[in-house]
Amino acid sequence: MLKNSGEVKFSSGFGRIHNIYSELIWAGISPIGVQVVDRLENEIIILDLNLNFMHNISINRNIYPEMAQIDPWGKLFMYSNTYNGIFILENNIMSNKPFIDFSKEFYSNYCIKDFAISSDGEVAILGCDGKFNEFSQNGLKKKSVPIKISNPLFLISVRDDWFVFNAAGECLLVSNSEKISMPNISSSILDIATINRSIAILTKEQILVLNVR
Fold first, then answer.
1. Predicted local distance difference test score (pLDDT) of residue 185
2. Region 111-213: CATH code
3. Which positions of the chain have pLDDT values less than 50?
4. 29 to each of 74, 89, 97, 161, 177, how far by Cα in Å?
5. For 167, phi and psi rounded to 5 degrees?
6. Domains 1-108 and 111-213 share a fold
């Protein structure tokens, strides 16, 4: 349940299992239920669709994920600053090696602002250096381009293309570097997500849902 304060309140069964020291960084629907990633506990919590606790999946390496995304086939991708890369959890088993090793592709202690997965399973990364980097389903780098908006922060995939936003609402379409005109946004953007072929933008004052044509 979403409370007026913005806090997400889970069902009582979930609350009894989990403790106050958790840091829940991502939640999403998967073929096995609702998955919730707990960074501090280094585990995946599985809930049913009524948000009742089912079981935990312990991550077998101390990656302490800071971001997560799920692909169309249910594979969970988790970014670890500790290991400087992105790991995959598939069929409750995590990869021994990073799917994308930032130390090899970029440099040690590479910093990212966001990452996203397209409908065909390709992965894109928005670096703190302001560059967009796209990788194939096999983890091979396809391209790297600078993003020409100030302080890019959010990255999403819609209709086989990539969109980059900053907190002020500036938007760039990566395929042709076109800046997209957006509705007036009265306060800073807190988060952006895709809903089918639409873009949902969360601010402190409103939620905007934009259709992409």
1. 82
2. 2.130.10.10
3. 1-9, 11-13, 15-16
4. 9, 14, 25, 22, 32
5. -65, -20
6. yes
